[in-house]
Structures are given as C-alpha cells and as structure tokens.
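To: structure desk
From: M.T.
Subject: fold request, one chain
Message: Could you run this one when you get a chance? Sequence is below, nothing fancy, just the single chain.
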Amino acid sequence: MLLGLYNTHFRSRNISKMALHDTVFAEVKRRDPERAKFAALAPARERRAILALLAFDLEVSRISHLVHEPTLALIRLQWWKDGVAEIYAGSNTSLGSPVAEALKAAIRAHALSPVCFERYFETWEGRFISGLPVDAVAHTVFAGGTAGEIEALSLEVLGGVNRRDEALRVGTVWGLVGTLRSQSQEMSPERACQLCEAAEAEIGLINPQFQRAFAPVFLKVIGLTSFLRALRGAEFDVTAKAVRQWRPSPWKTLLAVCRSRV
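Reply: Done. Structure tokens follow.
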C-alpha cells in the first residue's frame, strides 16, 4: 500500500481530537486564510469538517508545487486515493497524518459522498497527465473538478446537498478567480477577460438567496462578484492596484447582506 510509503510533511502521532482540529486549523489558516475565514462562519462541528476538507485540498494542490514529473505526482496522488478508499472501506488503521485523520472524521461524521472525491481525483489526474489548462474552458473544468467539488462537499457538511450544483459553481468561480490572482504577471488582458466572462456565467446560474446555515459557501459569491467588477473596471488588467488589493472579507460581506435585509 502506498499509504505506508508517502512521506507527508506531517508526522504520524497520537493526538486528541481537539489537538487534531487545532493542528489542521492552524495549517489552513496559515496557507489559505481566505477560505479559513469563511469556514469560521460555520458551527463548531461543521467548521471542523470544512477545515479538514480545505486542508486535504491544500495537501493535494501542494503536489503540483513539490514535483513536476507526472509519474511522481500521480504516485503522491495515489496515496490520497488509497487513503480515502480505506476510509470508505471502514478501516480504522491510522492514515499517518493529521490531515488524513481529520478527513476521516469529517467523512464519517457527515456521510460525505464518495462521488465528489472520485471526480476530484479524476480532475487532478488529468492535470498531472495533460499539464496546465490552456484555455478558459479547460480552466473552468479544472476549477469545477477541484475547488468546485470541495465546495460541494462543504455544502454537504452544512446540510445543503440539494444545492450541490450551485456549490460546484461557487467553487468553480473561486478557482477561476484564484487563477486570475496567482497568474497576474503572465495573464494577458484577453485571457483575463475570457476567465472573467466564464466566472460571471457561473455566477449567473447561482441563486443569490440562501439560508444562513449555508453562508460559509454562498457568501463567497458576493465577494467574488466584487472582484470581477473590479477587474472589469480595470479593463482586465490583473496587475491594477484595485485588483491586486482585493481581499474577500466574509464579515464585511455578511454585514452588508444583513443591512440590505433590514
């Protein structure tokens, strides 16, 4: 089993559930503070599960930065595939990392769909084999299969499985905006326009009304819309000051929503 071979940067150790949560939360907060802030809107039990999903996503995403040889990347991805398969098979064997153990707890506590993980892994396999997306369509497909599936799983945790397709779209937009922000130095205005239009098309298919319980997922839409608006205002110059300084703020967004409903 590849589970015994993968050298993750976390060391296997016996820790309490609370310490496990603290470890995972600290890692997500350090590496992905923006999504961590939205996760903080969820109740404690659900928040722990969402943070586990985010930590898992960060670990898989990290593979593309650690290795550039497709075969090696696929081996590392297989470690996670085997781990998730063991979780669904009911194994109680230690998986060897706090993130994997937190993911196990999240999957079992909320009976998360294995289909989401299957699509997630398939998308990453395609990325490692075929390389980076080359156009707006490919970027949209990749964002949907990665960030989209994580948002769909997060909504499952929050009890909103009937709005899965919309959660997928939220994650797709998050992924597209992430690409715009991370590739700002290489992104031409033409390509930025294409990704912006793709993101706007996804947002147009999301119902803006949502229950408060689903805020950790759907509240992102308001912030993402403001980024796309700023990008259009800058004529798709991703290096413009207004675009570079944009940061999602769930608390300010939530306050604005509450004021609009008074």
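Reply (cont.): The radius of gyration is 18 Å. Let me know if you need anything else for the meeting.
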